[in-house]
Amino acid sequence: FEISQINVLQMYLLMEEINFDSFLNILSVEDFKACTFLFADNDPSALHDYIENAFNELEPLFRQQVLFAPAEWHDEKLDLIDILNRKFSSAIEIYRDDSAFLESLPPVLITNLVKDSSGLKISINRFRVNESSIELHMNEESISVPFEYNDSQMISIPSHWEYVELLIAGDVVQSLPVVNEEGVLSIALDDQYIFSDEIFDLKTMRSIPEQDFQLNEIAYNAIEQKLSVEIAGNSDWSIQLGLFINDSLLWVWNSVPGFEMSFLDSNWVLMTSKENGWLHLCQVNENGAWKILESRPLHLQESFHESKVPDLGTWTALSFSTFGESNDITRSQQNKQFIPKIFALYQNYPNPFNSNTNITFDLLDEATVSLYVADAKGRKLQVYLDEIFLEKGFYSFNWSAEFQSSGIYFITLQAQTSDYLPVAMSRKMIYLK
Predict the structure, then answer these.
(1) How crowded is residue 207: how many other Cβ atoms within 10 Å of its Cβ?
(2) Measuring CA to CA, how many Å separate 357 from each of 160, 243, 247, 377, 432?
């Protein structure tokens, strides 16, 4: 196993002050899979051997340079092994969570959009073997994507394309507007986006880096052509923020320094005939130029509403608005902010599935409940419960996707008791024919 493939991972395992939530943010998917043997047996002995071999190989080169006696060199090795043993159990949990997350994804995804002087290119990654046809589409035009030897492909697309759809076996898995500015748009595996005007080594990340301020809630009313956006965050100093649709500036705001999270909501009526575009949250950098912090695709053919739940968390399709307040807020007699434990929505099983899947949840208190399945654009496909009063208990429903296309769907559960605002949660379901 080459040191170059494990250098960042070993920093996590061998240094107490370095911690990560996900190895997929520091390793490529290929390198992550190459690390399987380290965690397969729930035993750090493979890493013990790695450390032993590394110290033996490096001793002639480095021991005298750092002025270590043989005994000190040996003690340094034992110290690293001690740190490894203490951190290994948490590393196992991170590895398992990352592995389960990869299994929940479609077998192929677009991970980068790149625009430079030569045109527009799309980076596509394959996470597991898939025998189905893979194509890129816009309207009636299509490009076949072959995966014969490599798990990563860079495909050039025509300059007149306004958006691109990724199809697996004829079914849409992703739909993205093209980028107008030169640079690279990185698409994290958890459906977050960040744009950079500097084209360098393309990365595949589980999540984008955290920022002081983020997009937190977006809603669009297609009938009124009204776009509503919420920004959330905090900073110890004032930051100048700007919101753009493509390269058109919507507003500028200077944040107020403080420790409390602040929320800023704005609304616009869009006078545009374009059906696709990008929403960019930007910050003025040290050179006085706009730097994009986070991006989000806009599909303006239909209404949609999505929020990060909890605040600054994972994008979730919601049926109600929390503009002007925390996405976690509930009301009580003391007007405190907390989420009541009303229900537990479990991951559907099986997932991915190819015909039927089981949806289950525990209702921990009597409540008014809504439960529905929606597609990736937020369109409700099946409503099981629509503001129905239920007693506490365990509930189970079956969903058949027989007449649906392969792709990503969401099961959303919303519950409300008399003392609280509605609480909602969504889980992603993967349907593969």
Answers:
(1) 16
(2) 40, 40, 43, 20, 12
CB-based burial of residue 136 (10 Å sphere; 0-12 exposed, 13-18 middle, 19+ buried)? buried
Beta-bridge partner residues of 279:
245, 296
Where along the chain do its domains lie? 3-104, 108-196, 213-317, 343-431
Q: What gap in Å lies between CA 390 and CA 289, rounded to an integer? A: 54
- C-alpha to C-alpha distances, 280 to 8, 102, 254, 295, nearest whole angstrom: 31, 27, 16, 4
Question: In degrees to the nearest 10, what's the CA dihedral of 275, 104, 396, 362?
Answer: -100
DSSP conformation letters of 273-312 = --SEEEEEEEEE-TTS-EEEEEEEEEETTS-EEEEEETTT
Q: pLDDT averaged over the chain?
A: 81
pLDDT tens digits, one per residue of 51-72: 777 777 777 766 666 677 888 8
Architecture of the domain made up of 343-431: Sandwich (2.60)
Q: Is the peptide bond before 70 cis (omega within 30 degrees of 0)?
A: no
pLDDT of the residue at 337: 40
Residue 281 to residue 245: CA distance in whole angstroms: 9
Q: What is the pTM of this model?
A: 0.63
Q: Which residues lie below 8 Å from residue 169, measured CB to CB, with a gap of 6+?
A: 132, 133, 406, 433
DSSP designation for 365: S
Beta carbons within 8 Å of 280's beta carbon, 6+ residues apart: 195, 243, 244, 245, 246, 292, 294, 295
Compare 5 and 292 and report the one with higher pLDDT: 292
Residue 42 predicted with pLDDT over 50: yes
Q: What angle separates helix 3-14 from helix 45-62, to the nearest 10 degrees?
A: 110
The CATH number for 213-317, chosen from 2.20.130, 2.40.50, 3.80.10, 1.10.238, is 2.20.130
Whole-number Å distance between alpha carbons of 106 and 109: 7
Residue 405 above 80 pLDDT? yes
Alpha helices in 136-217 (DSSP H): none
What single DSSP character describes residue 89? H
| H helices, E strands: number in the chain | 5, 25
- Which of 4-18, 56-70, 186-200, 209-223 is least confident? 4-18
Mean pLDDT of 180-195: 85
- Residue 117 or residue 61, greater confidence: 117
Mean pLDDT, residues 371-398 taken together: 88
| pLDDT reading at 310 higher than 70 | yes
pLDDT band, residue 338 (cuts 50/70/90): very low
DSSP summary character for residue 272: -
